[in-house]
Amino acid sequence: MAQTLNIDRWNLECEFNNMDHRTDLNGADRLIVRRGQPFTISLYLRSGSYQPGVSALDCVAETGPQPSEQYGTRASFGLSANIDTSCWSAAVFSPSGDMVALSVCSAPDAPIGRYTLTLGQSGRIEFILLFNPWCPADVVYMDNEQNLAEYVLSQDGIIFRGHYKHPIPTPWNFGQFERGILDICLKILDMNPKCLKNPGKDCAGRKNPIYVSRVLSAMVNCNDDKGVLLGRWTDGYEGGVNPLIWKGSVEILHNWEKQACEPVRYGQCWVFAAVGCSGKMAQSRAWWQTLGTNKSTQTFLLLLYCVHQRDLCTSSVSRALGIPCRVITNYLSAHDTNSNLVIERHINENGDLIQSREMIWNYHCWVESWMTRPDLKPEFDGWQASDPTPQEKSERVYCCGPVPLRAIKQGELSFKYDAPFVFAEVNADVVTFMKKKDGSTSNVTTTSVVGQKISTKKVGSDDREDITHLYKHPEGSDEEREAFKRAEHQNKLLHQQENHGLHLAIKLSSDMRKGCDFDVVAVVTNNTQSEKKCRLVFGSCALSYNGFLGGNCGFKDLLNVELSPGAERRVPLRLNYSKYGSQLTDDNLIRLAALLFDYTTDEATLAARNIVLENPQIKVRILGEPKENRKLAAEISLKNPLPEPLENCCFSIEGANLTGGHSISERLACSVGPGEEAKAKVYFTPTRTGLRKLVVDFNSNTLCNIKGYRNVIIGK
């Protein structure tokens, strides 16, 4: 007759188990394990001893408020001779005696979350179960240790911003293992509307990373729920924080919890993506009133077509839960609102842009998660794109994805989820029409290519990896044409014919630093056999990364540009800091556009490009030998590049396992003159060994949100 083990007490062996399950960075004060992998509990018996084949122990594992075996949130199992990693199981791996080494294994498809494990009549333990990308039977399995170290365990990373011709690396502290972050991530799942409506069904759905990814995509923004971040893409961040100030996800997540799950103000696309890995965009016409009453200036600036970006929060949450993920930047990212895979721009005969919700953003960030897709063919396993920035609704909720990258590349737009929207972000055709007074329309010759230099951080380094080939075939290739046919979009490339008449381009100076004066040049070439007489409008204005236009930075209108056959005319435009400095936003972006009217043919040609002005470099020097739990100093310096003094200067630092989960700041007591160096020492104490990234930020009255970082190896 079987004899039930009479348990007196137990030891969860948290230090050993968490190390074995690669959750030790969360601490050793509680049990955190990954599904499909055994963990060991030491049981101390009140009476009797364990006897193989005789002793018995009934085990019940439960998660969620309404555990049910039908939904997979409750599992009952007893002692077996050996562990079965395909289901919930338990076995004893110790000799007879009053101490029992009990090995327990969860099913590789068990729902993630908080669990209670009942052992017979006298034992009840609690633990947290996560996805397991090291387990071959888990759908998030990734068979590459270097990739796992980067996409699951790494607590910091690089987000690429700027412009496709000048990508700017921005450091970010994901901090998924910082104290309290895992609990906040689980709370995000618990606060989603599906859980509040039907918690039993929602907890059952947490076995599936597809379901969890969609929940995170919706919950990182707050458009439909008590999500983490409120988005804002216009000037004015009253009652909140300029998104450029954030250095990591930790402070954002802590603030959300402290505010009783009220959204943190504010986020933009790279912040959404980082917090999720980490409001509906509000548009404003206020910029128009800043341009003055000069008609030609207004007409021209309307042509400075908008661009946009969004997403960082999702990476932190996904990595904390065990889903491999990375943040992606898509330069020249399209926002297609009517699902026709074409971004249509209309101007009138004066060059005025007829406003539309369809836009091309300078860059846009989203998240890729690694998983198999049992709902699709095996060839669509691997990286899946999800976008937590609120743009369009998916199944009546502001979320997007996950959709396989392979489906996007092949033009398989019927696959779940939201394939047409993501396909358009990287592949949409761009067409510009001029609407004439008689009601007819004509094409305006321009070159606009969507989806450039799709970028992510390279594994094992801070370099940029170009992954454009994972999303699309080379522009103009037979494969790209086939993908568009499959996507029922056959007009790609029809409007990209080379202009063999007048050619217009914008050339840049080699040295374009914030604070300097420099030239940009419009180059007009006559490729015809006849004389040409044209009008050239060439100007510039400040630009936010999301496409909102600021004030005029320089303007020129030449009514008579004459070109003989084969001739070239170069027209410089001087950009002076005295003029652009007060107009520039924190994004350091200036939009350049040249519009050429051919008086002979009445045709118009548009050339446009964005430039990013370089910020000064922050230098970081670590003083002392970096060791665990030893106080260190970071000597930080920055040279003032502006022809004016910097006031209210402040350096701040943050880093996973370096600064205790919060920022540390040091203000300078005096101003910093032109060409002088701002310098400060900031002290911090590392709490973990290994390679860590110290993220640095500099702010002043006129030079703001300058980012830098230093990799530091912390010894024992």
Describe the structure.
- The protein is of the alpha+beta class and 716 residues long.
- Helices cover 16% and strands 37% of the residues.
- A six-stranded antiparallel beta sheet has the order 22-21-20-17-26-27, sandwiched between helices.
- Helix 8 runs parallel beside helix 11.
- About 6% of the residues have low confidence.
Features of this protein?
single chain; five-stranded mixed β-sheet
Task: Give a summary of the structure in a few sentences.
This protein has 16 helices and 41 strands. By secondary structure, the protein is of the alpha+beta class. The strands form eleven sheets. A six-stranded antiparallel β-sheet has the order 22-21-20-17-26-27, sandwiched between helices.
As a percent range, the share of helical residues equals 10-25%
Strand content: 35-45%
Q: If strands are numbered along the chain, what order do they take across the biggest sheet?
A: 22-21-20-17-26-27
> How would you classify the helix and strand content by structural class?
alpha+beta
Oligomer: single chain
Q: Helix count?
A: 16
- Alpha-carbon distance between the two ends: 53 Å
The overall pLDDT, averaged over residues, is 88
Residue windows where pLDDT falls under 50 for at least 5 positions: 278-312, 489-499
Shape: globular
Main pleated sheet: 6 strands, antiparallel
The Rg value, from CA coordinates, equals 29 Å
Total strands: the figure is 41
